From TrEMBL:
Organism: Methylibium petroleiphilum (strain ATCC BAA-1232 / LMG 22953 / PM1)
Alphabetical keyword list: Plasmid
Protein name as catalogued: Uncharacterized protein
């Protein structure tokens, strides 16, 4: 059985490899996890100049984001979360699908509910109308 020191050394080695494989993301990068079912888009944040954004998404649309003070923090967080394989075409492949578009529509409804712009009943009605549209 490996000692705790051996396990920690192996963890640090893998983390360093993953972080190095991500490289510079100054111009943005899309990474996937080992399953290839989830992605993150790493990019400079436009809402807080000088900060960095990790935007999460999957086949059902965007699902959240995190803001980081430095590019190094951003890259380390992506590697720690298991995102280290570059997949630059992921967003292009997904964004036109009906599942991705519906997910983004639903995310917008949730944001509007949270902002008290819509009631749950209104959001349910809008989602039903969306789903009733021909594909």
């Amino acid at each position: 059985m490996d000692s705790l020191d051996d396990l920690l050394a192996e963890f640090r080695r893998k983390r360093a490899e993953r972080t190095a494989s991500i490289g510079d993301v100054s111009n943005g990068a899309i990474l996937t996890c080992e399953s290839g079912q989830r992605w993150v888009f790493l990019l400079p944040d436009m809402t807080e100049p000088g900060k960095w954004r990790m935007q999460r998404f999957d086949e059902r649309g965007f699902s959240g984001h995190s803001i980081f003070n430095t590019q190094d923090e951003l890259v380390s967080a992506a590697a720690d979360d298991g995102f280290f394989r570059h997949d630059p075409g992921a967003l292009d492949r997904l964004q036109g699908t009906s599942l991705f578009q519906r997910g983004n529509f639903l995310t917008d409804l949730v944001q509007r509910i949270n902002a008290r712009e819509l009631s749950h009943a209104e959001a349910d009605r809008l989602l039903a109308e969306y789903d009733a549209q021909p594909a």
